[in-house]
Automatic annotation (TrEMBL):
The keyword Magnesium does not apply. Pfam families: DivIVA. Residues 220-240 are annotated as: Disordered. Residues 53-193 form a coiled coil. Its main location: cytoplasm. GO terms for biological process: cell division. It is found in: Cytoplasm. Residues 220-233 have a biased composition (Polar residues). InterPro entries: DivIVA_domain (IPR019933), DivIVA_fam (IPR007793). Keywords: Cell cycle, Cell division, Coiled coil, Cytoplasm. One of its GO terms (cellular component) is cytoplasm. This is DivIVA domain-containing protein. It comes from Enterococcus avium (Streptococcus avium).
């Protein structure tokens, strides 16, 4: 059972015969109340201290996180500083390159002016040479044109001559066509005569061959008056 100081202060005891001395009990209770009051104050202070400790822990944790963030930030700043140093070095190199480029540009500009002057002189020279070449070419073209006109006249003359030759050849061709037709007709007549003569010769050859075979057969037979008479007849017939 927990007592509060006011509960202890208002506490009363029943009296009995030969009980405790009231003064001692009151002194004891007063001391107990004082101790309880002191204890409550200490307890309140402890609670406050605990709250403060929790707050301090939170503050410390926040501070640690802040320190960690600051450390990271410092590291990043160091890296950025290194980058800035590199960037400054690059800027210095660029400045040097810029100065060198400016010097080079000045030299190039000077050389460009000289080249322009030289190019202008060469241009004037080339224009003069081109004009001279143009005049020579015009003269050559006029000469070639005259030659072409002469060649044209010659070709016209040759063309007229070729036309005359063509007409003559055309007449010759017509004569040759007529001659061809005449020769073709004569060839047809000769062909007919040749075929007729050939038929006669074949017929005569066949008759002579039959007589020769018959005579040969008679000669191969035994000799008799009749066979001799037949051979003489065939011989006289072939001779006749």
């Amino acid at each position: 059972m927990h007592f509060k100081p006011k509960d202890i202060r208002g506490l009363t005891f029943r009296r009995r015969l030969f009980g405790y001395r009231a003064g001692d009990v009151k002194d004891f209770m007063r001391h107990v109340v004082e101790d309880y009051e002191t204890y409550q104050v200490k307890e309140s202070e402890i609670v406050v201290c605990q709250d403060e400790i929790v707050q301090l822990k939170q503050i410390i944790q926040t501070q640690e996180e802040t320190n960690k963030t600051l450390n990271n930030t410092i590291q990043q700043l160091n890296k950025e500083n290194e980058r800035l140093q590199v960037f400054e070095a690059e800027i210095q190199e660029l400045e040097k390159m810029k100065e060198l480029a400016q010097k080079t540009a000045d030299v190039v500009q000077t050389e460009a002016k000289l080249l322009l002057e030289e190019a202008k002189q060469q241009k004037d020279k080339l224009i003069q040479e081109a004009e001279a070449i143009k005049m020579n070419q015009l003269l050559n073209l006029q000469i070639e044109l005259g030659e072409l006109v002469n060649e044209k006249d010659q070709l016209n003359h040759q063309l007229a001559s070729k036309k005359t030759e063509y007409f003559e050849l055309e007449l010759q061709y017509e004569d040759m066509v007529a001659t061809k037709d005449r020769v073709s007709k004569e060839a047809q007549v000769l062909k007919q005569e040749f075929l007729s003569l050939r038929s006669k010769l074949i017929q005569k050859y066949a008759e002579g061959l039959d007589e020769f075979i018959e005579e040969n057969q008679l000669l191969n037979q035994p000799t008799t008056d009749e066979s001799t008479s037949n051979v003489m007849k065939l011989t006289s017939k072939r001779i006749g």
